[in-house]
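To the structural biology subgroup,

Please find below the input and predicted structure for Tetraacyldisaccharide 4'-kinase, which we are adding to the shared reference set this quarter. The sequence is reproduced verbatim from the submission form. If anyone notices a discrepancy with their own records, reply to this email rather than editing the shared folder directly, so we keep one authoritative version.
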Amino acid sequence: MSQRARFEAQLNAIWYGQQPVPWVLRWLAVIYAWILACRRWLYRTGIKRASRLPVPVLVIGNITVGGTGKTPLTAWLATELARRGWRPGIVSRGYGGSETSTMMLPLDADPAQFGDEPVWLMRAAKCPVAIGRRRADAGRLLIDRIHCDVILCDDGLQHWSLARDIEVLVVDGERRFGNELLLPAGPLREPPSRAERVDFVVVNGSAAAPAEIAMTVDAHRLVAINDLTLAKSIADFRGQPVHAVAGIGNPERFFRMLEQKGMQVIRHPFPDHHHFRRSDFEFGTSLPIVMTEKDAVKCACLGLPDAYMVPIDVDLPIQFADQLNRQLRQFQESAA
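Predicted structure (tokenized):
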């Protein structure tokens, strides 16, 4: 385990476990809260203004640090909106990539340049994706070049410079908001009360409250990362030891899913958006390597033998997509 991964594990033990919060983290959280309040005040008073795009904007995000399932949800929403006649485009920060300008992803986009999540989104949702520090500029690029008529902003809940019509908050059903403290004393980017001001709350895993929308993620097959035509049933790996690799926000969720499928999991957690090298996979044994789809987009060029990715299937109530479609159509008609 890398030094960064160990540090993240220590923080998670404080945020989601029973370990006491050090006083220095509490003081830093007070400073963070003050900065957050000042930033919110600048937008509320109009000193800073949010950019409004000429098409409806749907923002998907969370208020906690780490993985909650917002990126798979973004891909699901883009697919469902396309089925209902929309031309969706996705904008992202492109975190983890080297590109600093506003750009639309080419079909052969390199995750080292554009980031792993944008590349995965483009492939999974089969729709255009643009990255940029300013999501509004990325959105305009998609509107001007591809004529997208709805923009989805992945991980954009705190990107207040982009005006939005609908906000979707994604919550980890198992960990929820942890100790409910702001960073770095807790995992929260914003206070828990922020959940009351969004349009929809989607809960990934565990039971959803009556006002929330339940989202489940499952897996049924493994695909060789060096040959996408080679797929195996996940049941074929039942009882088999595997090296499980995850460089995502919540690696433990992935590891537990594999264990629930009957695999004997040897855990190899890496920091989120980790840039993998061949040496990262020198485990000393020649067992199969199993990783997430997001990690696989960065590892396909490494020539790893007996390495597989786990495509996930996202399930949500179809009524959720229908309701979003109706609301977006209303925004579209009122702007016409």
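Summary notes: The first strand starts at residue 57 and ends at 61. Residues 220-311 form a domain with the D-Maltodextrin-Binding Protein; domain 2 fold (CATH 3.40.190).

Regards,
Lab coordination
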